[in-house]
Design brief:
Elements lengths: L1 H14 L20 E10 H12 L3 E3 L7 E10 H12 L2 E7 L2 E7 L2 H35 L16 H15 L1 H10 L4 H8 L4 E4 L5 H6 L5 E8 L3 E6 L3 E7 L4 H14 L32 H18 L16 H12 L3 E5 L6 H5 L14 H12 L1 E6 L2 E6 L2 H4 L6 H11 L7 H8 L3 H15 L5 H5 L1 H9 L2 H8 L4 E2 L5 H12 L18 E10 L4 E5 L6 E3 L3 H8 L6 H33 L9 E14 L2 E12 L3
Parallel strand pairs: 2-5, 10-12
Antiparallel strand pairs: 1-3, 3-10, 4-5, 6-7, 7-8, 8-9, 11-12, 13-14, 14-17, 15-16, 15-17, 17-18
Helix pairs in contact: 4-5, 4-6, 5-6, 9-13, 11-13, 16-19, 19-21
């Protein structure tokens, strides 16, 4: 009997390793995956990566829709394709399974329950941390409310309050002691149940009305019949709103908890004997071409524009020191973990797979010099170099057999903000160097998910040399509505005609109301009954060249930047307060016509100045753009609404 148990134990020891991970066992069924392949890809989508492997092996590979656009960076040389696909699944916590459709068998990579649970747990940790911050701010405001004393916020001093968010909290405390309605919103929010709080985090609106209103809130503001709460995710955290867009509290992501995880992973790296060796220091193949300097801003430039130029100059200094320029090198996106990891992997001849994110949360570190320079990824010991870039980019690097797997601690939060590299490059060819996108690109941007819109805003100056793309967020609903229209409907708008809202689909009618009220969660206050679309219409009007906006040269990053109207003219318009509205409109219209008439001459003069300042740029390649103003108009009965979209338009010169 003992001998029988011993035989069974030995057989188990032999067979278990091959079955140790059922999530990748489907790879064992394909003999074609024994073929050795070589790959070097940066910021490639999983769909693209699998296409490369399929092309090399002939094995049919597919990625589930929800993970197709997730990005990866990989370096392998002469490794079995099976090992590469195994490492890819382990790096992204995914599962391989065999699937058959219409007698065609293929291997499918997908996110199973374990993957989803892990992702949701990370998101729930965010939610828990954010909830604590919300409660702390609301409780602090509630203390002022209960005291019965009116709080007075101190005068704003940027030296005392370098972080404007901190000062804004004090202003909210002041409002809480002076506005009974605002105080009631805060007191009621503190009474929300755990299930209502979870609904908020999941993007749902929570409404409390009638007898469900807490007694403390009702006593503070007896007129209240209902409170509606929601949470919006911002670039760096969450915002808690109530009713008519009253901002109750803000919370920022606190990622300090990930530092311990990164440090623990680094300790293992430093103890790995296979990584305790020096990296070779290659000789530079060629001298890098220095980025051209930015000319001094024109004297008439507004102060905030001068600051934008200073930021652009800073960025070019960094670009000159090694970070790829947008649209150049291996990818369109800025230097990230991939730029440090891949050269190390190649120099040390260690296969590596990395999750790729453009690291919006740490984008400011790029201007501060915190990003790893691509050419600095070699030299020194392998383990120490890996630990350095992990600390800078909040990644962990771990062993998976012979492979190194680099996992982003913020993957659960940032993956949805990525855009395909080809999309970024195509937009770069059209709008790099412009302060605002062209209308067609703006429509495309607004037509993406809100998460991707946040990514575009955060990374605009690194991708396009554009200081800010907040305009996309402000007019996103108008752009989404325009993008949803048929070509016939767009033609009607472009010809100055109006579109009756009753002809739109229900989801388009909701977008219309979002444009009308300029709110993500409209109240429909102007809608009278269920038949309101019969009395509503949408229009589009080109307002011409906008006052105080700039010329810019496409393809030149921030090299060309100049105002269309002088500050003196703009100031004359602003200070004409003694004029009647009709007279003021006349002046503005006359100025607009003057600008339109002189636009070509001004464009020529601007192009000559750019050509003189930058002889390395052929004058014929300089394209000049001005900023025009487009108005999305909405009417519901006698009520008007809508939004404005400044956008770049090419000037014929």
């Amino acid at each position: 009997m003992v001998r029988l148990f011993l035989v069974i134990f030995i057989l188990l020891c032999i067979t278990v390793p091959g079955q140790s991970d059922p999530r990748i066992s489907a790879l064992d069924t394909e003999p074609g995956l024994e073929k050795r392949i070589t790959l070097s890809l940066r910021a490639a989508s999983i769909k693209e990566l699998l296409a490369h492997v399929q092309g090399e092996t002939g094995v049919r590979l597919r990625a589930a829709r929800e993970i197709q656009e997730d990005k990866a960076s990989i370096w392998v040389e002469e490794r079995p394709a099976r090992d590469v696909l195994r490492a890819l699944a382990h790096c992204f916590n995914l599962r391989w399974s065999e699937r058959e459709v219409s007698d065609i068998t293929y291997l499918r990579l997908w996110m199973d329950r374990d993957s989803l649970d892990d992702l949701r747990m990370r998101q729930y940790e965010d939610y828990t941390a954010i909830t604590h911050q919300f409660d702390a701010e609301l409780q602090a405001a509630a203390e002022f409310i209960r005291s019965g004393v009116q709080y007075e916020a101190p005068p704003y001093d940027k030296d005392l309050y370098p972080n404007r968010d901190e000062y804004d909290r004090l202003v909210r405390h002041q409002r809480a002691t002076r506005s009974p309605e605002f105080a009631a919103m805060i007191l009621q929010c503190l009474e929300l149940s755990d299930s209502q709080r979870r609904d908020l985090f999941e993007g749902k609106d929570v409404e409390v009305s009638g007898t469900a209103i807490a007694q403390k809130a009702a006593e503070k503001f007896p007129e209240a019949t209902s409170f509606r709460y929601w949470v919006d995710q911002s670039l760096g955290g969450y915002l808690l709103y109530c009713s008519s867009y009253a901002l109750l509290a803000t919370a920022l992501f606190d990622d300090s908890r990930y530092r311990k995880i990164v440090q623990s992973a680094n300790d293992k790296l430093l103890q790995d004997p296979k990584l305790d060796r020096e990296l070779p220091v290659p000789k530079p193949e060629r001298e890098s071409k220095p980025a051209p300097d930015i000319p001094a801003p024109p004297a008439q430039m507004a102060p905030e524009e001068s600051e934008a130029m200073a930021r652009a100059r800073e960025l070019l200094d960094i670009l000159q020191s090694g970070v790829p320029r947008p649209g150049e090198g291996s990818a369109a996106t800025p230097a990230t973990m991939s730029d440090g990891l891949l050269p190390i992997a190649e120099a040390a001849e260690i296969p590596a797979v990395a999750q790729y994110v453009s690291e919006y949360a740490g984008a400011e570190a790029l201007l501060g010099g915190g990003a790893v320079q691509p050419q600095a990824g070699v030299g020194g010991k392998v383990a120490q170099r890996l630990a350095d870039i992990c600390n800078r980019h909040l990644f962990t690097v771990e062993r998976d057999g012979d492979f190194l797997l680099a996992k982003c601690m913020l993957w659960h939060r940032l993956r949805g903000r990525e855009l395909p590299e080809e999309t970024i490059k195509r937009w770069q060819r059209q709008i790099t160097g412009l302060p605002l996108p062209t209308f067609s690109v703006a429509v495309e941007m607004g037509g993406t998910t809100w998460e991707r819109v946040r990514g575009i805003i955060a990374n605009g100056r690194y991708w396009f040399g554009t200081p800010s793309l907040q305009i996309i967020a402000q007019d996103e609903h108008a752009l989404k509505l325009y993008a949803s229209l048929t070509s016939k409907q767009r033609g009607m708008l472009n010809q100055g005609m109006t579109i009756p809202v009753f002809t739109l689909k229900p989801e388009q009618q909701h977008l219309f109301m979002q444009v009308h009220e300029r709110n993500a969660r409209p109240t429909y206050k102007d809608a009278q009954g269920l038949n309101w679309p019969a009395h509503a219409a949408l229009s589009l009007k080109d307002q011409g060249v906008a006052a105080g906006i700039v010329f810019a040269a496409a393809g030149m990053r921030s090299l060309g930047y100049e105002e269309v109207i002088s500050l003196a003219e703009a100031e004359a318009m602003v200070t004409a307060s003694d004029l009647t509205p009709e007279e003021l409109r006349e002046i503005r219209e006359r100025l607009r016509q003057q600008i339109e008439t002189e636009l070509s001459d001004k464009a020529k003069a601007f192009a000559r100045r750019m050509a003189d300042a930058h002889p390395e740029i052929p004058p014929k390649t300089i394209e000049i753009y001005a900023i025009r103003l487009l108005a999305f108009g909405t009417t519901i009965g006698d009520s008007d609404g809508g939004s404005y979209l400044p956008h770049a338009v090419k000037v014929t010169w």
